UniProtKB/TrEMBL annotation, chain A:
Residues 8-243 form the ABC transporter domain. It comes from the Bacteria. It comes from Leifsonella bigeumensis. GO terms for molecular function: ATP binding. Keywords: ATP-binding, Cell membrane, Membrane, Nucleotide-binding, Translocase, Transport. This is ABC transporter ATP-binding protein. InterPro entries: AAA+_ATPase, ABC_transporter-like_ATP-bd, ABC_transporter-like_CS, ABC_transpr_MalK/UgpC-like, Mo/tungstate-bd_C_term_dom, P-loop_NTPase.
Automatic annotation (TrEMBL), chain B:
Gene3D superfamilies: MetI-like. It comes from the Bacteria. PANTHER family: FE(3+)-TRANSPORT SYSTEM PERMEASE PROTEIN FBPB 2, INNER MEMBRANE ABC TRANSPORTER PERMEASE PROTEIN YDCV. It is found in: Cell inner membrane; Cell membrane. This is Iron ABC transporter permease. The lineage of its organism: Bacteria, Bacillati, Actinomycetota, Actinomycetes, Micrococcales. It comes from Leifsonella bigeumensis. It holds the Pfam family BPD_transp_1. Belongs to the binding-protein-dependent transport system permease family. InterPro entries: MetI-like (IPR000515), MetI-like_sf (IPR035906). The keyword Cell inner membrane applies. Keywords: Cell inner membrane, Cell membrane, Membrane, Transmembrane, Transmembrane helix, Transport.
Amino acid sequence: MNVAEPGIVIEDLRKSFEGFNAVRGVDISVPQGAFLVLVGPSGCGKTTMLRMLAGLEQPTGGQIRFGDRTVATATGGSIAPGRRDAGLVFQSYALWPHMTVQANIEWPLKVAKQPSGRRKARVREVLELLGIAQLASRYPGEISGGQQQRVAIGRMIAPAPSVLLFDEPLSNLDAKLRVETRSELVRIHRATGATSVYVTHDQVEAMTMATHVALMRDGVVEQFGSPDDLLSDPASSFVATFIGTPPANVIPAVVSGGVARSGGKAIASLPPSVPTGPIDLMYRAESLRLAPGPAEGVLAAEFAESTPLAGRFLVSASVGGKRLSVIADDHPRVLAGDRIWIGFPGQPDGLFDSATGAKVLLEWAAGSPL
Amino acid sequence: MRAEPALRGEAVRVSPGDRGKRLRSWLTNPVAVLGLVTTAVLVVLVVMPLIGLIGTTLGTDGLDAWQKVLSGRLAPNLFWEPLANSLVIGSATAIGSVLIGSFMAWLVVMTDAPFRKTIAVLATLPFALPSFALALAWETVFRNDLIGGRVGLLQDLGLAVPDWLAWGTVPISATLIAHYYSLTFTLVAAGLATVNGSLTEAGEMAGATRARVARSIALPIVLPSIISGAMLAFAEGVSNFAAPALLGLPVRFQTLSTRLYGAIATGETERGFVLALLLIAIAAMVLFASTRVVGGRRSYATITGKGGRRSAISLDRWRWPLTLLAGLIALATTILPGLVLLMSSFARRTNSLTGGFTLHFWIGESDPGFAQGQRGILLNPTVIEAIWTTIGLGLAVAVCATTLGLAIGYVITRLKRPKFLSNALGILSFLPFLFPGVALGAAFIALFGRPIGPLPALYGTFAILVIAGAAYTLPFASQSGRAAVGQIATDLEEAATMTGAGLGRRMVRVVIPLAARGLLAGAVLVFVKMIRDLSLVVLLVTPATPLLSVMTYRYASEGFAQFATAITVLIAVISISATLLARRLESAAQPWSEAT
């Protein structure tokens, strides 16, 4: 990947729909060949972002550049969707039901006025790449959801666009197919050498496929970076609780005299630089332990469920109405609703301002284990 | 995430500088340009005739006519009594149509009654028949000797037919109900079909009884279609021309439509225009009320999405009695009047089963002993000409109205800004609904009766019939255009936009193929409506442009019952063949939808 070559540059992008601000100033820049995933809960503005990249919506502020071409600005002079050298896979696939698979894939090439021979060759090539050559003469209504999805991808990549856009393409597939298709999509992305933008609400997809992730919330980017950045160094408690399998635990606590207490129990000692008052502590599931019984630094919890996970168990329990995840070596062997105890053996994995959710940066004492 | 209107908070402020920019962006948007052009066409078709009508009634003669109609010595006779008659007939038509239409729709869509498909097909037929077909059939059977001349079958067999059964409110309402229940049936059946199986099943899972589910879940979903069915039947009943003209006029039973026709036919043009405006005002009030009641509950089914399976209501021991009842209604409004008309066209002696039968009225050569020496209709060059003119008119209007309907439907469902264009199109395309046929005919005479600038007077030409027909059928055409385009997911078109396809190409390759079924159905509806229409064309037709429906009316009023019924049978055959042909074409037009 050549970092010097710009792929997609988004500057201060905004979009409001008659007063509703769907996107409120987004800046993202990824190099050519990147796989950018826009992830976030529904209503966060990620699909609006994608539609602006596609040219189906006009930004009301800011601009978008593909490579060195400015494709959209708020002040007019936007390039039409079909001239952006971009392709889009719709969430619904939007295959034309009155055209065969072959015709669906061939159509963009017809619009681009490619000669017939070249079109046919390209369609064959795309069908081979996607492994659906045997479906060429079928109508979309005659093939399965997973096959429809491949056709939609085929239609997108047929004109060999330099930007691939995906709008939650896996959301209509069953769980097993979804996992298989993830790697398939990344393979196609690599094979085309294009820059991809992929919208999803599923952080697992973001973590597994992306080279770059933008986690969005309420029309702004909460954090932008590599999947590893978001996982190891979440910028806010929102990121911490959205990303990861399982996501990190954020436990509200009150600090006084260097000790953080939750529900009256002292659970962690913090450096003296941490100010007195409320604070949110981040603990990853693997940083917590199940304790055999009540003790100092142990909270009582109500057991909810236990999921086997690679030879260990992911235990969910609630403390004061807040759900916590713990990785345990053994099943707690209790029933839902029973009491278990959760211990906090080390320093928290991060601290967040309890009012704003922002990361609290502080100087840890030398030798502190964090 | 796309913003839903409900999420929209603060308003956007527009600086004056933005306005010019906006205007430019509209003019470079092909959809907005299409909207502008379509609006201009609708203004000519709809607004100008109305202005012509109003303008004429504001002159000296016009103001005088207003006074005479509303408060003069003749006012009761000219306006108030016909008004009362029209309202009574309208109400009876609405109530009767809703009761019968809803019952049949419920039986066909929701239950396990046998022969449901047959009943459904029969129940949609009356609307394909001209409304004068039923009136003629009624007359053939029930006419008595009140006004002398020929009598109907019953009286011919020696049975006395009371006047109330032969003339006036009862027969007019009965024939209109028999015609328009078909409309409410279609609307309510469509409404019931949208009651997704999973909705009612969810209600049953919640422990509600079948009756409770019907009342609290199914009824609210269907209510809008029942209400619009009732209002449409009322408006049609109030303004219908053919039935009161055949079953009322001979005994001087007048409705607003017959009064209006009479006024214009006798040269009292201003008086006629005043009555036309009053008739339009009444229709407008009714339909306005109905949209207020139904308002905003409209919903489209989408092409994508999974339909729930519905389990039919088991009728048990009511199965056969209810089926029989529905079957009888369906037969009595379709096959039976059809047979009566057919038989009457063969009767040697008018409306008589005992006088022997002949083919003379169909294929007879000129014979002084028969019908004053006129030849049978299939040998009569004027009738042959009328057949071709009628079919030509139907086709021309269907093509024009459907094209307009597609443009209107497309702009309304796809154009986001400027919003006023799609609003204007919505209102304009609905407006002709308020124009009873006779009134619209009058308006077109008011507008195109004399030359406008370089344009010659269109009165007496084929063109004025096509233009008036397109205006008349616009509400149907635009409705089917809207529904047809509205059910195409925008994704499908955006996918084409992404490949760089322009508006024209998207239309031809994506929108029209996918909307074809709905558009074709709409086009056939328009065709059939034109073929069987009498009210619009009765004032516009001249000998240069003979039309079958007008010939029927003339023959019927002049006492040539066999010719009238024979031509009506001809019209029915054309209408029904068109409808059946359309069904064939529909399935042929979209082979891909057979697969699923």
